[in-house]
Amino acid sequence: QWTTYLRTIKQRGPVALFGVGNLSIAFVNYLGLKEYIDFAVDDNVNKQGLFFPGARTPIISTRDMEKRKPILILFGVGSVRREFFEARWRKAIGDEVMIRSIFPEE
Is the pTM of this model over 0.90? Predict the structure, then answer.
């Protein structure tokens, strides 16, 4: 399901993964999705400039992601602050950006 969805979306523009934590890493690697993620995003400066574990996908800052204007942002962190980020991204990238959680029922 994720593979088909991401393959279709990626034809329309870049795909970002927000949050480079253990759950995001497991999600991408277990489901074999690394070829569909153009860049990973994390605001931890110690992760920026590195590569997503298990892939050669670069890790960039939120500000850099906003400049690249992805068509889809996969939200890979808890939903506690999701509303804040969604509002920020829609303002910076545009209302056409899709934001989808990697977690079920979110």
Answer: yes
